[in-house]
Amino acid sequence: MKEFIKSNMFYRLASVVLAVFLMFYVHSLENPNSERTFYAVNVAMNNQPSELILDGEPKTVDFRIKGIRSLVSNTSSKDIKVWVDLAEAKAGKSVYKVQYSLPDGVEIAWVKPSTMEIYLDEIGAKTVALKYTTTNAVETGFGNFEPVVEPTQIQVSGPKLLLDKISHGVVNIDLTGLKTNFEGELPIQLVGQEGTPIQDSMVSLSQDKAKVLVAVTENMSSKSVPVRPALSGEIQKNWMVSSVEVVPTSVRITGSFDIIKNIEYLTTAPLDLTQMTESFNGSVALVIPEGVGVLDGTEVQVNITVVENLTTRVISDLPVEVRNPPSGKTYGTMPGKVNVELQAYPWIFANASTSEGYNIDVIAYVDLEGQPAGSQNYIVKVECPADYKVAVITPETVRIHQ
Questions:
Q1: 3-class secondary-structure state, position 24
Q2: What is the pLDDT of residue 396?
Q3: How many domains does the chain fold into?
Q4: Collapsing DSSP states into helix, strand and coil, what is residue 45?
Q5: Which run of H or E residues covers position 184?
Q6: Is residue 14 part of a domain?
């Protein structure tokens, strides 16, 4: 060992080690370690499920890195990637670990917070009514009709918790000083259950503006006129219109005297009876002549009751049979005959008509099977072809006698 220490090889190795030490020492003097803090670094939400949405403001963290001064100085916030992995996330509030990646040669000193509570809500959609409000008034000497807003409904989408708070959409119409018709698009404002405006960037509307028409006219004559339903076509022969009701029965119209003086009534849009096999109840538009306004709205409720087209005929003095009497005994009824009202389509009766009445196989009877023969009342039953319905039997009961 002593010989090795005295040898040239030892001095050569010592020189190399010393040179390397001096190189790192000098380098450390020129590039000492340093630290740097980044504030409000945006946290990315990776692998967020498409059916969930982040409820709240974007998340940020404060970040401190350390390393050789030259590397730390050259590192910007764009070089630092910070994220939360939501691949396994479910709806609700959970705590997630903050993950990050740094440039080579730079280390993390600390990150605050290292975990964060995130609330994820399900994305939903719903349809809400679109209403309107008016402020101020048209010019003096003028009047306005009920505004027409289209559409009447809109679809909103966003976090379900926010959707639950939405009552409807509203369009605010300012009538100040109007002398002529207003037609244009106005913004839609969402309104909560308590009437307070709702504004949230996470809620989207199928459209953010609505078409608005406000008819403005000089104050002119007005009068009430009845409303008549316009029925077209022939209803199928198996059916008949039992009743037609219009609500309201009259409306108030307005316009110049020369136009409205000859208007005796308004009609609805045509209602086709051709395919109607059941009652109709719904709103129907009015047919409004040009230059005429309707103060009560442009639609009325029409109720049409449709029933089967049945005719009633009476089969008189139909004998009553006694079926299944006790063995060896013969019974009759008091009275011995009944009248039976039958219902059928008119052509059914027409096909059964004869010069002496109707040729219909109708039988009236009392069935004693399982019943004692006594002084009690027995229900009269009737057999008839399937095309007919038994409406009334007079009398409905008879007594039995031997």
A1: helix
A2: 93
A3: 4
A4: strand
A5: strand 182-187
A6: no
Q: How far apart are CA 122 and CA 90, in angstroms?
A: 9
The amino acid at residue 60 is T
Residues of the chain with pLDDT under 70: 1-14, 16-31, 51, 55-56, 141, 328, 373, 375
Q: pTM score, two decimals?
A: 0.37
Q: What is the dihedral of CA 337, 341, 342, 346, to 10 degrees?
A: 130
Residue 245 located in a structural domain: yes
Among residues 308, 334, 366, which one ends one of the domains?
308
Question: Residues 108, 72: contact at Cβ < 8 Å?
Answer: no
Which amino acid is residue 205, in one-letter code? L
Say whether both 227 and 212 belong to one domain: no
| Rg of the chain on CA atoms, in Å | 46
Last residue of a domain, one of 274, 308, 342: 308
Separation between Cα atoms, residue 193 and residue 197, nearest integer Å: 9
Q: What is the Cα 149 distance to its own chain's centre?
A: 18
Count of residues in the chain: 402
Residues facing 308 on adjacent strands: 239
- Residues 129 and 196 both lie in one domain: yes
Phi first, then psi, for residue 274 (nearest 5°) are -55, -45
- Of 220, 243, 384, 224, which Cα lies nearest the Cα of 305? 243
- φ and ψ of 12, to 5 deg: -65, -45
d(CA 202, CA 341): 69
Query: What does the alpha-carbon distance between residue 307 and residue 324 come to, in Å, rounded to a whole number?
Result: 39
Rounded-to-5 percentages of helix, strand, coil across the chain: 15, 50, 35
Q: Enumerate the H helices of 270-365 as residue ranges.
A: 346-352
pLDDT value for 1: 57
Residues 316 and 394 in one domain: yes
Tell me whether strands 106-112 and 216-218 are parallel, antiparallel or unpaired: unpaired
> Dihedrals φ, ψ of 347, to 5°?
-70, -20
Backbone φ, ψ for residue 33 (5° rounding): -70, 150
**Which range of residues forms the domain containing residue 191?**
122-218
> In this structure, are residues 360 and 384 in contact, taking their beta carbons and an 8 Å threshold?
yes
167 phi/psi in degrees, rounded to 5: -95, -50
Give which of 33, 118, 23 is closest to 70, Cα–Cα. 33
Residue 341: CATH number of its domain: 2.170.120.30
Name the burial class of residue 1, with classes exposed (0-12), middle (13-18) and buried (19+) by CB atoms within 10 angstroms of its CB: exposed
Q: Distance (Å, rounded) from C-alpha 184 to C-alpha 172?
A: 12
The DSSP H or E segment spanning 224 is strand 221-228
